[in-house]
Amino acid sequence: MAKVSVIKRQVRRENLVRRYSALRLQLKNELKKETSFKTKMELDMKLQKLPKNSSKVRLKNRCWKTGRSKSVFRDFGLCRNVVREMANQGLLPGVVKSSW
């Protein structure tokens, strides 16, 4: 189980990304279209003044059950430990234990 503070930090980041995504996209599109160097520098400064955590790159996939950030399966949104437990219990449809 992940620390509560780490999970809350992730939620705050998600809120910032949601809030600033439109403005960030608009600034990036203007930056691509612009040809003059001076205007590009001004747009870049505006982009840099946005909060650091408002960038989508700073988000991390987390297990929805435990909050673990490593080895998260995209299909289920669960970490490998929970996937294994739930698959053994038969709670994940279409997942079978392989044996050879």
UniProtKB/TrEMBL annotation:
It comes from the Eukaryota. InterPro entries: Ribosomal_uS14, Ribosomal_uS14_bac/plastid, Ribosomal_uS14_CS. One of its GO terms (molecular function) is structural constituent of ribosome. GO terms for cellular component: chloroplast; small ribosomal subunit. It holds the Pfam family Ribosomal_S14. GO terms for biological process: translation. Keywords: Chloroplast, Plastid, Ribonucleoprotein, Ribosomal protein, RNA-binding, rRNA-binding. The keyword Ribonucleoprotein applies. It is found in: Plastid, Chloroplast. NCBIfam families: PRK08881.1. Part of the 30S ribosomal subunit. Belongs to the universal ribosomal protein uS14 family. Binds 16S rRNA, required for the assembly of 30S particles. This is Small ribosomal subunit protein uS14c. It comes from Microchloropsis salina. The lineage of its organism: Eukaryota, Sar, Stramenopiles, Ochrophyta, Eustigmatophyceae. The gene is rps14.
